[in-house]
Amino acid sequence: MPLFRSKAEDKVREAGFDPARLPPGQYFTEKWPVLHAGEVPEVDLATWTLEVTGEVEQPLSLSFEELKALPATEVTTDIHCVTRWSRFDAQFKGVHWGELAKLCRPKPTANFAIAQAEAGFTANVPIAALEDEHALVVYEADGEPLTPDHGWPVRLVIPTKYFWKSAKWLRAIELSSVDKQGFWARYGYHHDAEFGKKGRYGF
After folding, report:
1. How far is it between the farthest Cα atoms of the chain?
2. How many angstroms from the chain centroid is the CA of residue 168?
3. DSSP designation for 71
4. I need a surface site. Which of 78, 108, 150, 200 has the fewest CB within 10 A?
5. pLDDT over 50 (residue 1)
6. pLDDT tens digits along 137-187
7. Is the pTM of this model over 0.90?
8. Which neighbouring-strand residues pair with 57?
9. Judging by beta carbons within 10 Å of its beta carbon (0-12, 13-18, 19+), is residue 110 exposed, middle or buried?
10. Sheet strand arrangement including 170-176
11. Secondary structure string (H, E, C) spanning 87-127
């Protein structure tokens, strides 16, 4: 067993978790590191909206209060960053895609979801990743409102992928019949972002 893997697993055991939860090449942290490109955007909730566009029967534009008025879901899930940290049992509260889908009515051609965030950031996932039971449009983390550096007022959480797919400062979800390369994929991260596989860099 590689030395890094052995030490990483020892730290997981010391924290009382099963080392099998740690994907290859990752290390365990109890903190939530802050990583992003550019500055934390300033957001005015009075004018903020979340749009759902593209391959839908009914495009949506929801205010923050309208989003929070939808049925809420709470999940506890592990998250894994492409920069190699993993955090277990992170708690999130928000709206599951299924609630938004009832309103926008995706077309059969909606095969992919492209998250669009502040400052032109984008992240692409297959629609199945958005439909996963633990995927949410999130406004609370660990029992508190999101902090600005973690995506306030709203971020996406897609725990089946490396966490760069979980776009901070979410402003829109575009449904598309074709896949579109996301921001970090253009800078060398793997398009599929599948942790535990060859999904860290390249194609």
Report:
1. 54
2. 8
3. P
4. 108
5. no
6. 999 999 999 999 999 999 999 999 988 899 999 999 999 999 887 666 665
7. no
8. none
9. buried
10. 60-62, 50-54, 170-176, 112-117, 122-126
11. EEEEEEEEEEHHHHHHHHCECCCCCEEEEEEHHHCEEEEEH
